[in-house]
Amino acid sequence: MSSARENILQRLRGASKNIKPAPIPNMQLPAMSMADRLTQLTNAMQLAHTQIIDTTESEWPAALLLLASEQKLKHWLISSASASAQKFADNAGLCQQPLTLTRYNKSFALLKETVFHQIDASLTDTAGAIADTGTLLLLPSVAEPRAMSLVPPVHVALLRTSTLVSNFNELIVQQGWPDNAMPTNALLISGPSKTADIQQTLAYGAHGPKALIVLLIHDHKELDRNH
Amino acid sequence: MTPTFRQRATDALADKALRSNFRGAMDFLREKRASVFTDERELAELRALGHQIRANVLSRLPSLLEQLEAQCQKNGIQVHWAETPNEACEIIYQIMHRRNAKLAVKGKSMVSEEVGLNHYLETRGIECIESDMGEYIVQLAEETPSHIIMPAIHKSKEQIARLFEEKIDGVGYTNNVDELIGVGRTILRDKFFKADVGISGVNFAVAETGTLCLVENEGNGRMCTTIPPVHIAITGIEKVVEKISDIPPLLSLLTRSATGQRITTYFNMISSPRKKGERDGPEEVHLVLLDNGRSRIYQDTHLQETLRCIRCGACMNHCPVYSRIGGHAYGTVYPGPIGQVVMPQIEGLEKHGEMTEGCSLNGACGEVCPVEIPLADLIRTLRQKKSAAAIPPDNRAGIGSHRKKTEAIAWMFWKWVHRAPAIYLMVTFAISRLRLLMPRSFGAWTRYHSAPKPAPQTLHELMRHRKQATSKEDQL
User: Fold this and answer.
1) Mean pLDDT calculated for residue range B415-433
2) B361 lies in a domain?
3) Are residues B55 and B192 in the same domain?
4) pLDDT score at A222
5) A226: pLDDT confidence band, cut at 50, 70 and 90?
6) Beta-carbon separation of B220 and A207 below 8 A
7) Phi, psi dihedrals of residue B4, rounded to the nearest 5°
8) If we measure between CA atoms, which residue out of B114, B106, B110 comes closest to residue B88?
9) If you placed Cys at B282, which of B98, B107, B184, B231 could pair as Cys (CB 3.0 to 4.6 Å)?
10) What is the pLDDT of residue A227?
11) Residues 6 or more apart whose Cβ sits within 8 Å of residue B208
12) Angle between the B421-433 and B405-419 helix axes, to the nearest 10 degrees?
């Protein structure tokens, strides 16, 4: 097939000499204050049916346990190694109902059956969020693989306000892309899975999670609060 | 013989249910788009930016494609090049054959429709299931998508309810959309679970980082690119963008123009297959770069503007013709204004020249286009080409293939009259004096319009009279 490559490139090279690149206009998007970011994030997330639970670093495990018992989420898929997963595991015994925690500590082939058919909910961390569109950034890793935010019917994500940026451009700067290599898979998630493919009627839970719940941990500095 | 565009359009116009389904859908999509573009100045700036980013990509297309290839390979993504649909299908088939794959799940990909992938794989014993809800419905009905973003837009929920009842074992009639989606979810989850290969399209391929970006709401795109052990992405060579920092404006333009969302539920950036130690994701990722006429379109600096397209579908949503005849009337993979520009260039004017006539040149398409493609101008250019007199020796484009002798003679006469003032005066004088001999019927025109009636005096005469009258008044 290398001939296809050469043929295509040759045809393109023949014509591309006639086109000159033009300067790209600079479009500055305003940076938001922390208060505005929080308001915008909340509004955008609510519009997309993302549930937000405001909490703090010390209180989120209790908030999660309350959520688990209220929504009867018994079987959880959690990270094999993250501090958040450990904190959840340490507190799980305090839940009103017995919880089963499955750690994602082996290859997908071995866990596939469980992940697809037995899990009620998953808990993941996030790498940041975009206020403008109410969007979470997830960077799946060895400890927190991709399927965690995709297959379980309920996805609970921990978001720290200190990682919140105004817009997608700022997120790219925050992550240091492209100087920092792009991860295997980077995901922007802006709500539960949905579709409007049947007569423009919105339905949630098309193929991915039916519910996305964000535990919003207010951990930003006071300086930002007064901004 | 397959019906012509004109016949299909006529049939579609007579189909009341179809008309109502499209009317509802178009109104919905237009309102949604308008609701997220409330700031006219921001919209104008953003469109100019999108235009420039895409134009710059085209100006460096060959080197960006090489950069994309090198970066992907560095990341462990295997890159394949295909000049024709058949080559693309064969590349994908060979990958699957090598893995002994029998079941593929596919996320929405118009390029895979363009190359006829499902059929190709089916005849070789591989089942290829569409997993986007709209595409799944269309596949179940043995139809093709009627819209590039919302494939089943031509069907009402009652029609889909009857389809599910008829085609899926154990499903009774329900027109509850949540229940219908639930049925699709259950069936397709089983397919994701079992599939050997996942196939997807690509919205943007970033040259700088070798990243494949996918835009979607349902999660089927993530399923196809995450769960099966092999992921094959197929896209047109024009989908490359230079830098990761080009993505935010393009993504914003795409989702707001397409469905009126500020962002879709998922924006999936894939830069490599499963790395050592990682626990899920495909072991192999392949990227198939399809030409299929794009490098030919690229040769013409005017028609090249076609390749800026980011496939949002706003042009069809705002087209007065598309919204009345629907997507199937065009009889092509890409319908509506962008289809009228792309299809005749890919498959030739001889085959698809007629569809360029289904346009009033109102320009609504170009006005909403997020990358400012002058669609009406391009359609007019293709109309001229299809009726042109000079036919080049290697005429794969089908130039002059729709030239009609009577039309050519009529225009020749028109040109002759309008270039010589004396003849013009003579002819217009004759027409005004012989106006009662004017025929009452002009074929298709007078089916819906009254026949034109020439005035008793020519415009020149009327102006002369007026001039004389005013100069007399001035004298008085």
Assistant:
1) 94
2) no
3) yes
4) 63
5) very low
6) yes
7) -80, 170
8) B114
9) B231
10) 42
11) A178, B67, B71, B242, B243, B244
12) 110
**Total count of domains within chain A:** 1
In one-letter notation, the amino acid at residue B262 is R
Mean of the pLDDT values across residues B241-258?
97
How close does chain B come to A56, measured CA to CA in Å? 26
Residue B95 lies in a domain: yes
Domain count along chain B? 2
Tens-digit pLDDT profile for residues B113-149:
999 999 999 999 999 999 999 999 999 999 999 999 9
User: Residue A135 is part of which domain span?
Assistant: 33-192+207-225
pLDDT number for residue A50: 98
Averaged pLDDT, A169-195: 97
Same structural domain for residues B275 and B149?
A: yes
Looking at the fold, whether B278 and B151 belong to one and the same domain comes out as yes
Confirm whether B156 is domain-assigned: yes
Contact across the interface for A108 and B188, Cβ inside 8 Å: no
Interface subset of B 382-441, CB within 8 angstroms of A: none
Residues B290/B236, Cβ–Cβ less than 8 Å:
yes
Of A21, A106, A207, the CB nearest to B223: A207
**Nearest-angstrom CA–CA distance, B141 and B157:** 13
Tokens representing residue B175 in the block: 């027109």
**CA-to-CA separations, B234 to A8, A133, B205, B290, in angstroms, rounded:** 16, 28, 11, 7
Tell how strand A135-138 and strand A128-130 pair up: antiparallel
Which residues sit opposite B235 in a β-bridge? B289
Domain that holds residue B457: 405-475
Asked whether residue A181 is assigned to any structural domain, the reply reads yes
Contact A15 B299 (CB under 8 A): yes
Q: Tokens 């569109």: give the residue.
A: A133
State the Cα torsion B294-B297-B302-B303 to the nearest 10°: -80
Cα separation, B471 vs B467, in Å, equals: 6
pLDDT at B165: 97
- Residue of chain B whose Cα is closest to the Cα of A115: B193
The CATH number of the domain holding residue A47 is 3.40.50.10420
Percent of all residues in chain B with a pLDDT value above 70, rounded to a whole number = 100
Alpha helix (H) residue ranges in B434-458: 444-448
DSSP state of A54: E
b/e per residue, A83-121, with b = 16+ CB within 10 A?
Answer: ebbebbbeebeebeeebeebbbeeebeebeeebbeebbb
Q: Is A60 exposed, middle or buried (0-12, 13-18, 19+ CB in 10 A)?
A: buried
B370 band by pLDDT with thresholds 50, 70 and 90: very high
Q: Of A95-109, A113-127, B48-62, B427-441, where does mean pLDDT reach its minimum?
A: B427-441
Q: A16 or B3: which carries more pLDDT confidence? A: B3
Radius of gyration over every alpha carbon of chain A, rounded to an integer in angstroms: 21
Whether B272 and chain A come into contact, CB under 8 Å, resolves to yes
d(CA A222, nearest CA chain B) in Å: 30
- The structure tokens listed for A197 are 């493919």
Determine, yes or no, domain membership for A211: yes
Q: Which amino acid, residue B321?
A: V
Which residues have CB under 8 Å from B381's CB, separation 6+? Answer: B302, B303
